[in-house]
Write a structure and sequence with these properties.
The protein has 7 helices and 14 strands. The chain has a 7-stranded mixed β-sheet, with helices on both faces.
Amino acid sequence: MELNFDKLMLDVQLLCKQVGAWQLEEQKNFDKSKIEIKGLNDLVSYVDKSSELQLVNGLKNIFPLAGFITEENTLNNIKEYNWIIDPLDGTTNYLHGMPNYAISVALSKRDEIILGVVYKANGNECYSAFKNNGAFLNKTKLSVSGTAKISAALIGTGFPINNFTKINEYLKTLAYFMQNTHGIRRIGAASLDLCFLAEGKLDAFFEYNLNAWDVAAGSIIVKEAGGNIFDFNGGCNWLFGKEIIASNNYLSKEILSVIKNNFSL
């Protein structure tokens, strides 16, 4: 099947912007009593659920043959092509009035991500990429940083929120990066971490216990910006393997070595 990626991209961007505008309006007067608890430190609200429903309905019209992998379980029916959706990455940020949250929509063919859009409504920043076409922030082409030494790198990460089985290994890794880099940043939305890496603001990113919808769209944006994506073993099981490393080309081996050493892989 030949896909018209240019049209797909425009349609997905427009849909994300429409849903993002609605999220911004809802945030102005959000009632915190409407917050639900999915699990330990795992929050959800009607904004997540309604956003996902709007995205699913819109994407059905854009590409009716595709299946869905969704965070809030609006629709999950896996096919050859699949939309992978996080309707509100950074829910906790959103619910507390923090600006770092985004809509993340990716299209996969089998297990390969071929298109991704991450829309940060707060700031009207639309990150996007499709296979072999480069990565963009709005209309500006993106490229990962040229930082060649870990001592000059800024590292992104995400804190464990409910899976603490690897907390000691994680803290050892943090300690190393604290002492050997320019610093560590925790944004609170993995899709934005990956986009900031693609933009050259971060030089590397790592996190464990992530889901496919957290990383799918951001991963192709990183790759099309010239970066690398792999799991904690240096392999390709990062989409469904719940662990990811992303970096520019210069730092990949050293970042992987640090994580493999501290996680005893």
